[in-house]
## 1
Amino acid sequence: MHEIDVVIIGGGAAGVAAASRLAAAALSVLVLEARDRSGGRAWTKHTGGFPLDLGCGWLHSADENEWSAIAKKLGFEIDPTPPPWARPACQIGFSAEDQEDFGTAWNRFYARLEEAAAQAVDRPAAEFLVPNCRWNGLLNAISSYINGVELDQLSVSDHSLYHDTGVNWRIIRGYGALIEAYFPSGIAVELGSPVTLIDHSGKRLRIVTPLGQVSAKTAIITVPPSILACESLRFHPPLYEKLDAADALPLGLANKVFLRVDDAAELPQGTRLFGAIDRAGPAAIIYDRLEGRLSKDTLAENSRAGWSRRVMDHSRVSQSIRSRRCWDMTCENNYTQSQNLPGEEILLRADRTLCESRSVGCACSTR
Ligand SMILES: Cc1cc2nc3c(=O)[nH]c(=O)nc-3n(C[C@H](O)[C@H](O)[C@H](O)COP(=O)(O)OP(=O)(O)OC[C@H]3O[C@@H](n4cnc5c(N)ncnc54)[C@H](O)[C@@H]3O)c2cc1C
């Protein structure tokens, strides 16, 4: 059995950061990563010569975000252009008047959430929607884009803990590429090694993967809470308090679809398009023209609960935009490399682990 000082379990952003911190220490360090690549939910893939971030793409609170400083140190150029959501959306299907009306509903809804967060009892955000308001569907859809869940699954207290300075930048070569580049060269990593058990009954930890066992003094566990909650990584003896804590931090589901658009030059760079604005499950598209040929579109629409229904909605969005502008859209398969799949199938074939986005807290009364 290998004898190691520190085993880092998971090679996503957190695991890479831990490895980097330990690189200078006089310790033996090993990263065990389940996938065949590091980066986890950060993954930049090159398609048609363009770097596309399949996972995280925005340096949120970029003026305070430590990855901004790391980018500068590693020579990764930052694009400080304010994000498309900081400007009015494209008016196709969403008039300026409707956008203003929606903006007012948005501001009032989030002001109610802020007020509610000060109360002792946590509640699902959906309780603060105005019944029958025409914008509830869109508020829900945009929550699925931001939080990975609709508002009935969003904890008001957890939402209030999210810190946002309002500054959002991007890494031109890709956020995933930056995180990958930060992996320290001197640290050993074993890919394709999902840890299934941590036995902490003895003096040293016994860490088990399908490929063998490692003996470690210490383990740093950076896997998503969902992995602990479903016990695909188990502890012996069981750590019930940690299991409960992981269970109370469910993750939302985020996914992206990239669309290749003919006549891309007809649209302004960095705009948002809304496929539908009047029902639950519509989608907004963030449109970035890359050298006038490939467009990078993010469907603002995800839901753990309504996975297959949502997939239909994605396709309707494409239809609706297509009918307005007669674009010929071909979906780029973002999570699997395989064949050219029709748009509806893409999300079903997506990598479900990668899709987990961020914790949404436990909206207590919904569970
Ligand atoms: C589509 C999408 C868009 C996003 N956009 C943004 C954004 O714009 N800005 C932003 O700040 N955040 C964004 N996020 C969230 C961000 O990507 C994550 O918060 C961040 O990457 C999480 O890093 P992590 O290291 O904590 O977890 P992960 O990246 O999930 O890393 C955990 C690692 O553990 C591995 N693992 C799992 N189980 C085991 C096991 N049993 N044994 C060994 N290894 C295991 C996984 O394979 C993974 O590599 C987005 C997420 C998604 C999915």
Note: The chain has two domains: 2-81+171-247, 84-169+251-359.
## 2
Amino acid sequence: MAASSSEQTDDLLAAAEPRADRPDSTDRPAPLHCPSCGSSHVAQVLGDNGGVSYVCTACGHSWS
Ligand SMILES: [Zn+2]
């Protein structure tokens, strides 16, 4: 006797679900924008106590 195997459509659909885990977009740094003028011309500079600060070369605004 051959078993009936004509009801496996659900299994095929479950295998075709798109995967949400894409490891190729996790380590990209966010683009810097000046919080004052919104320009992307931002320079990264070292602060006084070893920290990192940012200076907008368009308007001169600095932040950290
Ligand atoms: Zn700016």
Note: The mean pLDDT is 79.
